[in-house]
Amino acid sequence: MRKTTENVKKPTDTKKQQIFLHFNIRYLHFLGLWPSGGKTSSWIVYHFRLGFTLINLCVILTLEVADCYFKFRDLYYITLLVSEVLINFQFILKIIYLVSKQKTIRSLIDILEKNLVLDEEVGTECYKQARTLILIFSFLASLCCLTWLILPFVDDEREADGLTRKLPFEAWTPFNLSNPYAYFSAYALHVSHAFIFISYAPAWDCFFVCIIIYICGQFKMLHKSLIKIGQIDCYRPNTSFIANEIETNITVKSHMLQNTQMPLYRERQDLLDVKRHNIGVSKEEAALRSYRKPWDEQEQNDTCTNEKLDEEMKALHNCIKIHQALLGLCQELEHIMSPIMLVQLVLSSGTLCLVLFQLFVVPIQNLRFVTVTGFLSAVLFELSLFSYFATKLKTISLETANAAYGCNWFDGSSQLKHELMFIIARTLNPVKLTCGKMYQLSLENLTEVLKTCFSICTMLRTLNES
């Protein structure tokens, strides 16, 4: 039996495998959101970073809530403050949730890396896609925060509480900002908060998105394996080719006999015997009558067919195990992400409504318009990121049925056909990611959320004009 190794994909090496998911883990560890599990010094640094981040977010959140009390009569500034409060509150909940679910997430990643390895082609594609997402999200967050930091030195439209010095974020401060030391301390606090926004938002969101991309890559490899079932090379006589070859030989020899002057009685007699023997039968039957194989070749062909069926069943059973493992991983991922996705959907949608209102109120020539635009882009990208990849995961899980049907099942055994039917039936229930087990993440539902946000924004504009 001839074995083909041309279509076999080599798995990625350990370094590339670790670069794909462990890049986000190292990033989270640098930010204090993921423990290293090593020395005591690393454990202390990890808790110090985590504590610093939570204290910074809580302090800024408290100052913004306090500022809402003093500016509740101004609709524009109250919407600006509430949008910042919602984002900071969302960050705090995300960080606490990630820290509390570290053991479950770590076990999920271990299963992905040890038992389900991507091949070189799919792994490179997934890695480029994940890296592009991280760069885009980081660019949007950086643009937003940089304009926030420059805004106090450029925006001269108003004076806050009678003071000429302002801060990047709208927040109450207990100090007199006319004092240079007090202003420098408050500004340093806001700069550290901007750094948290730039780094933590892409790190948290892209970490879970990279896991979804990894699972989508595993589904692509599963589809390739299913399509290859039944394509194992085996020695079989091609009766149609043999029949065409015999007919060609008879035609050529007849033409030679007609154009030659020498009597070729022996070849003419052989041709007449072949034609007389194959009168009233099809080409395939004539080919099989003329094609006489020895008994040892016939036994070798039967053995090859049995081995082919065994390999097909082994390949199918392996595909079924991988499919069951992927479904279990998707169910575990949905169990982890569902509660926090509900929180993100509610808070991000509320932030989007308020930021849209600010976009219509702020003049275009003002630098604050660039800040609001960058903030709006970051919020929209965050909302659409999970909706897009949740839809992609659902679509690629449904394509498993097409891959199972696209294999060479018609030449397989009845057992192979029976098990393929079970795979197709199970695929009819696709993988879904939900928010709180009651709202499905998808692009279709995202459009409904955006419509609702625009309606609320229109209502706020009407209230502001009146």
Description of the molecule:
- With 466 residues, this protein is mainly alpha-helical.
- Helix content is 77%, strand content 1%.
- The protein contains 13 helices and two strands; from the N terminus they run ααααααααααααββα.
- It has a two-stranded antiparallel ribbon with strand order 1-2.
- β1 and β2 form a beta hairpin.
- α10 runs antiparallel to α11.
- The chain is elongated and about 90 Å long.
- The N terminus is likely disordered.
Work out the helix count: 13
Task: Sketch the major β-sheet.
Answer: 2 strands, antiparallel
Shape: elongated
Output the radius of gyration. Answer: 34 Å
Proportion of residues in β-strands: under 5%
Q: How is the largest sheet built, in terms of strand order?
A: 1-2
Mean pLDDT reading: 76
Poorly predicted regions: 1-19, 158-163, 233-243, 252-278, 291-303
Strand count: 2
Helix content: over 70%
Structural class: mainly alpha
Order of helical and strand elements: HHHHHHHHHHHHEEH
Distance between the termini: 84 Å
Question: Which short descriptors sum up this protein?
Answer:
1% strand; 2 strands; disordered N terminus; 466 residues; two-stranded antiparallel ribbon; mainly alpha; single chain
Short description:
The chain is mainly alpha-helical and 466 residues long. The chain contains 13 helices and two strands. 77% of the residues lie in helices and 1% in strands.
Write the layout of secondary structure elements.
Elements: H1 14-31, H2 40-70, H3 75-100, H4 102-115, H5 120-154, H6 180-227, H7 239-259, H8 265-277, H9 283-290, H10 295-361, H11 367-405, H12 414-427, E1 434-435, E2 439-440, H13 443-465
Helix pairs in contact: 1-5, 1-6, 2-3, 2-6, 3-6, 3-10, 4-10, 5-6, 5-11, 6-10, 6-11, 7-9, 10-11, 10-12, 10-13, 11-12
